[in-house]
Model the fold of this input.
Amino acid sequence: MKEKSKTEILTELYNTHFVENYAFKVSGRLDKVFFEDIVGELYLFICELPEDLIVGIYNKCGINCFRQYVSGIIVKQLRSKNSVIYRKYKKDYNTTIPLSSILQPERTWEENERPLI
Done:
């Protein structure tokens, strides 16, 4: 098996759509609301891995070993309440109200016009 560079390995992973497919498989209802953004975050995590780690895992037994490693990242990011994805996309989802659902958003920010006594 020919040694590949980090870029070649990441390109091979991207071309197989493994991240999207596996993330969809393990995602919950709330994950599907932000699915495209979450997949982008996952690719960012994977691309930021050190080159020697990616190449070392790949050279051990090929793309399947690297997929196993990536699947661990995906599961931990989607299921953990301490993950970046949880804090960024899920944590405040039930406590916030989308601006589009407010009937008169401009009035929401107006201060009371009562005179101060």
In short: Residues 6-91 form one domain. The chain has a mean pLDDT of 85. The radius of gyration is 21 Å.
